[in-house]
C-alpha cells in the first residue's frame, strides 16, 4: 500500500465511520479496486485507523467524556459494549472470511438501504431526547443491536442508531449515543487488532504491532489516523444536521445506489 492509497482509505474511514453507510464496506471496496485488500497490513490499517475517528468523538464531546462526576455515563457505555466484545471475539474468524468478498457486502449495503428508507416510519413517538434518560437496560439492548454490524456492509452506526430508535430515542439522541458507544467499541477493536490479533504474512503468523514496525507502515498508520480524525469531525457535524432535517432516507438512497453500482462492478468488471 502506498501513501495515496493509505490517504484515500483514511478519508473514507473518517467520512463514513459515523454515517449509516458502513465504513468497512467502503474501505473494502476501495482496497479491492486497488488490488490490495488481501494484504495483511491493509487489513490491519483499515481497523487501526478507527482510532483517529474515536478521537474525533472525544474531541467534539469532550465535556461529556471528561465529566467524571457522572459515573452513570461510563457505566452505560461499559455495559453496552459488552455484547460486541463477546460476540466479536467468538465470530472473529468468520468475519475475516467475509471481509475479502465484496459481492455479499454490496448486497448487505442494498438491503440496509431499503431498511433506512422506511426506518423513520417504523419507530415513531420517541420519548427520550438526551443520554441522561437512557437506562442501563436500554443501553445494553442498543449494544446488542450494534452487534448486527459484525457483518460488513451493515454499518455499526446504522445498527446502533436503529437500536436506539427502537428503544424510543429520538433520531438525534440515537445518533449521539451511537457516537458515544463507538468510542469503547472501536477502541477495543483497535487495541485487539494491533496487540493481540495474528495475521498471516509470508506463511508465518505475526501480530499487528510487528507489522507496524516494518518499513513505512508506522508513518502510514500515523498519517491515516490524523486524516481520519479531521475528516470524522466534519462528517459528524454534517450528519447531525442532515438527520434533523431529512431523517435517514437520503442515506438509504445512497446505500441502494452505491451498493447496486458496486455489485455490478465486482460481478461483471472485476
Structural class: mainly alpha
Q: Order of strands side by side in the largest beta sheet?
A: 1-2
Radius of gyration, in Å, reads 18 Å
Give the uncertain stretches in residue-range form.
none
Rounded mean pLDDT is 88
- Main sheet makeup: 2 strands, antiparallel
Can you offer a commentary on this structure?
- The protein has 270 residues and is an all-alpha fold.
- The protein has one domain.
- The protein contains 14 helices and two strands; from the N terminus they run αααααααααααββααα.
- The chain has helices at 3-16, 23-34, 40-48, 50-60, 62-65, 71-90, 92-99, 102-122, 136-146, 156-166, 171-196, 208-212, 217-246, 249-269; strands at 198-201, 204-207.
- A two-stranded antiparallel sheet has the order 1-2.
- β1 and β2 form a beta hairpin.
- The chain is globular.
- The mean pLDDT is 88.
Any descriptors?
single chain; 270 residues; mainly alpha; two-stranded antiparallel sheet; 14 helices; 3% strand; globular
Amino acid at each position: 500500500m502506498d501513501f495515496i492509497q493509505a490517504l484515500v482509505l483514511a478519508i473514507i474511514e473518517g467520512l463514513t465511520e459515523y454515517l449509516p453507510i458502513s465504513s468497512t464496506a467502503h474501505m473494502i471496496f476501495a482496497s479491492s479496486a486497488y488490488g490490495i485488500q488481501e494484504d495483511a497490513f491493509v487489513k490491519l490499517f483499515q481497523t487501526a485507523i478507527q482510532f483517529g475517528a474515536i478521537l474525533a468523538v472525544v474531541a467534539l464531546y469532550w465535556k461529556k467524556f471528561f465529566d467524571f462526576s457522572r459515573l452513570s455515563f461510563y457505566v452505560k457505555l461499559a455495559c453496552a459494549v459488552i455484547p460486541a466484545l463477546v460476540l466479536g471475539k467468538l465470530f472473529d474468524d468468520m468475519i475475516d472470511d467475509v471481509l475479502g468478498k465484496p459481492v455479499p457486502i454490496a448486497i448487505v449495503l442494498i438491503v440496509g438501504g431499503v431498511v433506512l428508507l422506511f426506518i423513520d416510519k417504523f419507530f415513531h413517538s420517541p420519548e427520550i431526547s438526551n443520554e441522561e434518560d437512557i437506562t442501563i437496560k436500554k443501553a445494553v439492548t442498543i449494544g446488542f443491536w450494534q452487534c448486527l454490524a459484525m457483518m460488513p456492509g451493515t454499518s455499526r452506526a446504522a445498527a446502533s442508531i436503529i437500536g436506539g430508535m427502537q428503544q424510543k430515542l429520538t433520531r438525534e439522541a440515537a445518533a449521539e449515543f451511537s457516537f458515544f458507544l463507538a468510542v469503547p467499541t472501536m477502541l477495543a477493536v483497535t487495541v485487539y487488532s494491533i496487540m493481540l490479533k495474528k495475521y498471516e504474512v509470508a506463511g508465518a503468523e505475526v501480530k499487528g504491532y510487528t507489522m507496524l514496525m516494518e518499513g513505512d507502515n508506522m508513518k502510514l498508520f500515523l498519517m491515516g489516523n490524523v486524516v481520519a480524525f479531521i475528516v470524522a469531525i466534519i462528517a459528524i457535524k454534517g450528519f447531525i444536521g442532515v438527520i434533523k432535517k431529512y431523517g435517514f432516507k437520503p442515506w438509504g438512497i445512497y446505500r441502494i445506489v452505491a451498493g447496486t453500482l458496486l455489485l455490478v462492478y465486482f460481478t461483471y468488471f472485476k
